[in-house]
Amino acid sequence: MENNSDNQPNSRPYNYGTPGTPPPQPPPSYPYPPCNSIGANAFKSCLISGCVTLLVPCLLLGGLFTLMYYLIASGMQEVTKEGGPFAELYQLSNQDLRTLRTRTLRPGKDGAGTIAIVSVTGAIGGRGSALHGDGTLEFVSQQLRAAGNDKNVKAVILQVDSPGGGLSASDQIHHEIELLKEKGLPVLAWAGGMMASGGYYISVAADEIMASPTATLGSIGVIMRYFQVQEMLGKIGVSVNPITSGPHKDIGSPFREMTPEEEKILQKYVDISYQRFVEIVAKGRKIAADRVSEIADGRIFGPDQAKSDGLIDSIGYIEDAIAWLEKKVGEEEMRVIGYKKVVSLSELFGEAGGEAGKALLQSLSRVEAENSGAMAVWK
Asked: Which residues are catalytic?
């Protein structure tokens, strides 16, 4: 019997196509082409070629900068070493060569020699020593050593514009100036704006002190500051209970009242520091210590009064200071240079962040120490 599918009501024709053809697939559920499409391959190729195109110039540029840096560094060492073409202009130690740059402030006559201006600006501070320290102590000490190591420098101007600062930092800079004078270089301290307290302490080491007509001078003395916050903290329910190894271990604490015995201890320390200040001034200015004590009560002086009391020698501008040193040396039209602090590429990119954070923490620690009275300052 013949089987005719057309006579079956539930049967539908189905086209299987040609032999070997896979059944039809449903359309993709997203509008993007498959990963193996021509567009995707082209996008990958463009992305890879673009990255390579950018990476190669960056690598070449980085290598070029690195090569230039080392060539310049080695070139500076070559020209500044003994016998190099610029040896007489840059007779610096290796340490100072990396951190200081010499600037010509006034050209001079050939063979007349050089006057170096060492700048002392702002509050005098810093920790460590003149050989390995930071802050003003480091920068001023580097300038003084650079001037002393430069065979072409015949005299030094200590340009001071400082209200004072730390006791130890001021004393170490004073000592560095004395070491510089031992090399036979005349030193003149010139007050541009303020030469007070620690700024005056370091200046008395110079052979001559000159001040501009509007400078502020003096303020010879020592001060230690203490704050009391116990009452304020008590209002908000905060108390501090220190455990110490002795009754004076937390002397000067802002969290409790100072005892009369502690006041005597700290006053004795201030008196000893003050007496050293008086002796330093008496020795440097060749004034009797008793006379220095009479005027060293912390007061400030104008140039005229300071000159009459023997605290300075003369009044004048920077040109007058240069002329005085030229006469002292016996030369005319001397070249005048200054020093600028520079930062190497390695310090800028590799150490700047860490050093900046370290400097911030040290600054905050210093403020905390001074506020708590743990550090004496010239005032």
From this structure: 197, 249
